[in-house]
Amino acid sequence: MKLFRRLKDYIFQDVKNENETKKAAVMMRCTALFFCVFFLGATVIFALTGVWAMALFSLLLIGLYSAAFRITYLGHTRFACNYLNLLTLFWIACFVVILGWDCGVQHFLYVALIFFCMVTYASKTKKVLFALGILFFRLTLYFYTHTHAPFIILPFWPKFVMQLICSMSLICMLTNLALLFSQDSLEMEQKLIKYNKKIELLANMDPLTKLLNRRAASAKISKMCRHEGSDGQVFNLAIGDIDFFKKVNDTYGHEAGDEVLKGISAIFTEFMEDKGFVARWGGEEFLLVFQGMNGDDAMFLLESLRLKIEKSSFSCNDNTLKVTMTFGLEEYDHRRNIEENLSRADEKLYIGKTSGRNQVVY
Q1: 330: CB partners within 8 A, 6+ apart
Q2: Where are the extended beta strands (E) located within the chain?
Q3: Does residue 91 share a domain with residue 47?
Q4: CATH number of the CATH domain containing 289
Q5: Which of 74, 78, 170, 186 has an alpha carbon 20 to 30 Å from 49's alpha carbon atom?
């Protein structure tokens, strides 16, 4: 089991050259190994039949495919690909000419074709031309074998076993290429999905506080408004502002102001869990959305949040800072649009600011 795991890790080892792909190298390694196994079986058949020239030729091909396997680790992926294709076409022609059409090895031309299309980054035109070349090559061999007798005529049982290992090897190779290609496509798709989610997250997140930004929060509220009338969901909008935040920046610097913003955001995130969501609305303003409760319940929670912030302290450069916040709370009214509801919450915030700060106005 450990030996198998080591072999798998060795086969799936990444290439060192940044301009080459792991997928191509792994496909070539697997193809080369499958051909080595095939020719090992062919060597046994030829040896048992007494066709020593073909047995030696098969051993030579094992060595040549082993060399192709090794080349993939040397940063020569393109050379290895061309080498494999030419070697495959060469021995197929030799086998068909020597043993005849019934040996069945001409079917490995499909492996060469699919291998070329999957591994190389050639243009579509070149791939079509290669396919036409494979077709011409196969037809040429077909017409040759029907006008020329094979040099070696195998008895029935070696010919049958040869057909058997050809079919098995061909199915294994095509399946392997398909699995590797589909796995690579799935991995790439998953990477793209993760990347798109990351991009979407960054687009919706305020970089300093890690809260939703204004655009994302507006979109989320709009979605809630569309469903509010149908399912009876109620929610409350609260806009909060840090009192005398400019004084914090002017006295202790913007770095201290940033620490206060991050500290308050952490309090918001923890407090709003299972209650709704919070976003940075702009500057030192925050938007809190309380879901599934009436205004009185939201008022009670918001007051406890205000007291929590008042009792908290924030550190920056050996300075301990304490701040307070003022909130304007509005229970969502579906008879008004979202801008009007937000405007009413903002008006209540202004009332709180002009009447002493550090309070919740509802």
Answers
A1: 236, 237, 238, 295, 341, 342, 344, 345, 348, 362
A2: 235-242, 276-282, 285-291, 314-316, 319-321, 325-331, 360-361
A3: yes
A4: 3.30.70.270
A5: 170
Question: For the chain, what percent of residues have pLDDT higher than 70?
Answer: 90
**Inside any domain, residue 207:** no
Return the higher-pLDDT residue of 80 and 41.
41
Quick one: CA dihedral 341, 343, 345, 351, positive or negative?
A: negative
- To which residue do tokens 């610097």 refer? 253
Among the listed residues 118, 104, 126, 95, the one whose alpha carbon sits nearest the alpha carbon of residue 174: 118
For the cut 80, the answer to whether the pLDDT of residue 313 exceeds it is yes
Contact at 8 Å (CB) between 152 and 96? no
Q: Domain containing 18: what range?
A: 2-201
Answer yes or no: do 170 and 89 share one domain.
yes
Sign of the C-alpha dihedral, residues 186, 192, 195, 200? negative
CA distances to 4, 6, 9, 26 from 1, in Å: 5, 9, 12, 21
Per-residue pLDDT reduced to its tens digit, 92-140: 999 999 999 989 999 999 988 888 887 777 788 999 999 999 999 999 9
Using alpha carbons, select from 328, 327, 286 the residue that is nearest to residue 307.
Answer: 327
Q: How far is CA 260 from the centre of its chain?
A: 36
Q: Which of 262, 246, 247 is nearest to 314 (CA)?
A: 262
pLDDT digits (tens, 9 = 90+) for 59-104: 999 999 999 998 888 877 778 888 999 999 999 999 999 999 989 9
SS3 content of the chain, % helix, strand, coil (to 5): 70, 10, 20
